[in-house]
């Protein structure tokens, strides 16, 4: 039986500067050290803005708090004349474990298509970062194609050329549920997560499909996380708005208690 360690990840988007990040991560680590709870079975991670990563690295390393972290985006290029871009190797040198790739806000506001997403996945893996590949359908896609066709197609294209041994995470984030306060139901999330796992099986084989974590994202809160986590193919959550509130985010990480 494959056991997948649940991952609860916070996408801060363009919130919290590096001073605020220091305070937040320190307090989060203290909250998670609370002896009354056992967190060893859940992995927590944050995705701060680029400018916070060095500070987050310092806090995480200084006290060996086991909070993972990563960037919200990465360049497809290794280095060179790409003003404003940040290379995967730079993130790796800050000990980032993860990087978000293809978040719906990158896809819609910055025109990232599946080819760009695939190139970013490859750039991340090339620097031993774990890409958190975000996929999801818009309300219009849902109406036209049903819930899983678009996310499955996005994932399949993002995995082109990826080795079956690669360490990746998939985040299913229906665009209509992001920031809307209207989360998918656990059953809806499970249905698409199961389809995404089949797509993983097809692209990367059984071992990768069984080991790869699939997160649900879209208006996850402390009061709805437990329902998602009960679903067999949902292995964690990518949390936006609620990850900016320390108590709320800590409660989401504590979904088992
Ligand atoms: C996100 O943007 O990844 C997200 C899930 O946002 P929210 O939790 O605010 O819906």
Protein model, in words:
This protein is α/β, with parallel strands linked by helices. It has one domain (7-253): Aldolase class I (TIM Barrel, Alpha-Beta Barrel), CATH 3.20.20. The chain is built from eleven helices and eight strands. The chain has helices at 18-33, 53-63, 88-93, 104-109, 114-126, 139-145, 149-158, 186-204, 206-211, 225-229, 246-253, and strands spanning 7-11, 43-47, 67-71, 98-101, 130-135, 169-172, 213-217, 236-239. Strands 1-2-3-4-5-6-7-8 form an eight-stranded parallel barrel, surrounded by five helices. Helix 10 (225-229) links the parallel strand 7 (213-217) and strand 8 (236-239). Helix 1 (18-33) packs parallel to helix 2 (53-63). It is globular. It starts with 6 loop residues before the first strand and ends with a helix. The mean pLDDT is 95. Bound molecules: phosphoenolpyruvate (PEP). Residues 11, 173, 178-179, 217-220, 238-242 line the site of phosphoenolpyruvate.
Helix and strand composition category: alpha/beta
Radius of gyration: 17 Å
Tell me which CATH architecture applies here.
Alpha-Beta Barrel
**Distance between the terminal alpha carbons, to the nearest Å?**
24 Å
Which regions have little confidence, pLDDT < 50, spanning 5+ residues?
Answer: none
Mean pLDDT over all positions: 95
InterPro entries: Aldolase_TIM, TIM_sf, TrioseP_Isoase_bac/euk, Triosephosphate_isomerase, Triosephosphate_isomerase_AS
EC number: 5.3.1.1
Enzyme class: isomerase
Family: Belongs to the triosephosphate isomerase family.
């Amino acid at each position: 039986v494959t056991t997948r360690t649940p991952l609860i990840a916070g996408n801060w988007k363009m919130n919290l500067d590096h001073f605020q990040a220091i305070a937040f991560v320190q307090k989060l680590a203290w909250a998670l050290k609370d002896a009354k709870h056992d967190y060893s079975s859940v992995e927590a991670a944050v995705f701060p803005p680029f400018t916070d990563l060095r500070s987050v690295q310092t806090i995480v390393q200084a006290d060996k708090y086991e909070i993972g972290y990563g960037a919200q985006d990465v360049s497809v290029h290794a280095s060179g004349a790409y003003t404003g871009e940040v290379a995967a190797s730079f993130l790796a040198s800050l000990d980032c474990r993860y990087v978000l790739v293809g978040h719906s806000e990158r896809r819609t506001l910055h025109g990232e298509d599946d080819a760009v997403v695939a190139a970013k996945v490859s750039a991340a893996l090339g620097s031993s970062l774990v890409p958190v590949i975000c996929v999801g359908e818009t309300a219009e896609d849902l109406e036209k194609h049903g819930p899983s066709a678009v996310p499955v197609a996005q994932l399949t294209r993002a995995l082109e050329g990826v080795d079956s041994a690669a360490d990746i995470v998939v985040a299913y984030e229906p665009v209509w549920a992001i920031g809307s306060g209207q989360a998918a139901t656990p059953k809806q999330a499970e249905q698409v997560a199961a389809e995404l796992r089949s797509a993983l099986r097809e692209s990367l084989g059984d071992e990768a499909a069984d080991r790869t974590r699939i997160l649900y994202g879209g208006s996850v809160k402390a009061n709805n996380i437990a329902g998602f986590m009960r679903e067999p193919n949902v292995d964690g959550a990518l949390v936006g708005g609620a990850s900016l509130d320390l108590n709320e985010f800590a409660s989401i990480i504590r979904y088992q208690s």
